[in-house]
């Protein structure tokens, strides 16, 4: 009983970093989550089983099922489910949690020794707040949550690319805190090597202009597009990407440069920008520029989805 109580407390911490929105909003799943949160693990157990029987086998549903078994002390039933999640959904936050639970149940001593390392091993857990400087306020939890929510909303294949490429995310109050040499930078997010830095404020005439959560999300996802393009070997330089890009370019509306100025002559970075915006779109971006690129470069987007084995 003591072991079960300790494990339940640990599960609560694990679930606090996983968004139920990743699963389909079916009634059985929703009822299961409600029952689980109330501590009715046996009832929750049956709801999650029913959801899976109806075809809802998302990783989060399976994770809750395994947790409901473990919370009842039914570790022999929980372990196979955890292992299935770990092996079938590699690169996702759910797989990382399942792997931790497998290790915790199979070898508690090893889990304790590796806990610190395992917590920082996945892309989701590589989001860190950069310490504030110059008397600025620390990065808010809301901004960190905005970035993490955007990550949880990404397709699994996108997440896996970022995780494998060891991309990290730093959230800073402003460019003055993170990049003193470029303190006048007027970008909400930048990519430097394998690190994406997201800024909570822009410094304009020496004053901080707070960015909305929507602006932060869109800026972050644009750099996600850049990170994937670069870490995948420069997708925009692939001859087949160029061919698809040229086909789409023949049908562009006359005024598109008003929304996408990078398409104006000499347009030296046009293909790279289009690639990043399309990947941004696939990752969940919805800004005006993202929508415009997605609508006007359908063949190029289809090529990317096929190339990276992504789902639209």
Provide structural commentary.
With 312 residues, this protein is an alpha/beta fold. It has 3 domains: 2-119, Tetratricopeptide repeat domain (Serine Threonine Protein Phosphatase 5, Tetratricopeptide repeat), CATH 1.25.40; 123-231, Hect, E3 ligase catalytic fold (2-Layer Sandwich), CATH 3.30.2410; 233-312, no CATH class. It has helices at residues 2-15, 27-37, 41-53, 59-71, 75-88, 93-106, 108-119, 141-152, 156-164, 175-178, 213-231, 239-249, 270-283, 288-296, 298-307; strands spanning 127-129, 168-172, 189-192, 195-199, 201-204, 207-210. The chain starts with a helix and ends in a 5-residue tail after the last helix. The model is unreliable at 16-25 (pLDDT under 50).
Topology readout:
Elements: H1 2-15, H2 27-37, H3 41-53, H4 59-71, H5 75-88, H6 93-106, H7 108-119, E1 127-129, H8 141-152, H9 156-164, E2 168-172, H10 175-178, E3 189-192, E4 195-199, E5 201-204, E6 207-210, H11 213-231, H12 239-249, H13 270-283, H14 288-296, H15 298-307
Parallel strand pairs: 1-2, 2-4
Antiparallel strand pairs: 3-4, 5-6
Helix pairs in contact: 2-3, 3-4, 4-5, 5-6, 6-7, 8-11, 11-13, 12-15, 13-14, 13-15
Keywords:
312 residues; Serine Threonine Protein Phosphatase 5, Tetratricopeptide repeat; 4-stranded mixed sheet; alpha/beta; globular; two-stranded antiparallel ribbon
């Amino acid at each position: 009983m003591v072991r079960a109580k300790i494990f339940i407390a640990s599960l609560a911490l694990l679930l606090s970093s996983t968004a139920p929105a990743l699963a389909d909003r079916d009634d059985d799943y929703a009822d299961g989550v409600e029952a689980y949160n109330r501590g009715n693990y046996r009832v929750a157990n049956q709801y999650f089983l029913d959801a899976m029987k109806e075809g809802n086998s998302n990783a989060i549903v399976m994770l809750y099922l395994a947790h409901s078994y473990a919370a009842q002390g039914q570790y022999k039933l929980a372990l196979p489910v955890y292992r299935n999640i770990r092996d079938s959904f590699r690169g996702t936050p759910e797989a990382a949690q399942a792997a931790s639970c497998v290790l915790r149940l199979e070898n508690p001593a090893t889990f304790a020794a590796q806990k610190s390392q395992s917590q920082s091993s996945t892309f989701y857990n590589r989001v860190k707040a950069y310490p504030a400087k110059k008397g600025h306020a620390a990065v808010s939890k809301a901004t960190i949550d905005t970035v993490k929510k955007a990550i949880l909303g990404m397709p699994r294949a996108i997440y896996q690319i970022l995780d494998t490429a060891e991309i990290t995310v730093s959230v800073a109050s402003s460019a003055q805190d993170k990049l003193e040499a470029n303190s006048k930078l007027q970008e909400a997010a930048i990519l430097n090597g394998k690190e994406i830095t997201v800024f909570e404020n822009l410094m304009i005439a020496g004053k901080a202009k707070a960015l909305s959560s929507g602006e932060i999300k869109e800026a972050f996802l644009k750099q996600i597009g850049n990170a994937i393009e670069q870490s995948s070997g420069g997708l925009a330089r692939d001859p087949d990407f160029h061919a698809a890009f040229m086909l789409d370019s023949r049908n562009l509306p006359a005024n598109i440069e008003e929304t996408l100025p990078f398409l104006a002559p000499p347009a030296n970075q046009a293909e790279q920008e289009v690639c990043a915006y399309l990947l941004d779109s696939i990752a969940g971006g919805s800004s005006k520029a993202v929508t415009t690129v997605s609508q006007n470069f359908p063949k190029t987007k289809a090529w990317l989805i096929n190339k990276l084995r992504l789902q639209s």
